[in-house]
Design a protein that fits this description.
This protein has 245 residues and is α/β, with parallel strands linked by helices. The chain contains eight helices and six strands. It has a six-stranded parallel β-sheet with strand order 2-1-3-4-5-6, with helices on both faces. Helix 2 links the parallel strand 1 and strand 2. The longest helix has 29 residues.
Amino acid sequence: MKFPMPRRHFFLFAAAALFAKPDSQNAFARDVAMTNKIVLLGDSVFDNGSYVAAGADVMAHLTRQLPVGWSAALLANDGSVMKDVRLQLERLPAATTHLVVSMGGNDALGVSSVLDAPSRSVADTLLRLADIREQFCSEYASTLDAVLAAKLPTAICSIYDVRYPEPDRRRIAVTALAILNDCITRAATERGVPLIDLRVICNEDTDFANAIEPSAEGGKKIAAAIISFLTREKASSGRAELIAR
């Protein structure tokens, strides 16, 4: 039995559409996947390119490790303090879907002179540190709230332990940083925000290009932790979680 020409054309076009369907579906899936964009905010923990001239920086490692279809943008800037993060927020790309923030390290560095100040007693020193802690906690919490106002899945980072070459100076700095990291941990817990603990992740001297900047190896570890946040985020959204690798 012969069909009229229009009917034959209908079947030909239907067959062509049938064979083309998988490719169309794949193209659609790729388009959907491309809607994922992570933005890094903060300081030189992420913007460490000038310290790893012979290796890859955090962004390079992150770009290599991102799932297919993801993209990344760097708004973090070397030397930034917490107030600068608010300015970075104003430049968020419209397509941003996830945020990771590293802030507070330069703020801590700015008040580190207290560690060399003369003191009448241990109690006197602790009171000075308490004043610094209270101010740091307040500014950290308000800045984090400004970040969370973007209503995007967000992870924050602790301040890693510095790598001063002098053993005593390193011990003193790490002890003082623990007081400020307590502010970060509390802020994350109270707001249900995942915490990337850089103290655990960057745990070797080779993870640092100098006393306070991540090396190419450290950057690779940091990028891997960010990837861990991205792959766990859907299941743990809204819950405080410690990410240590």
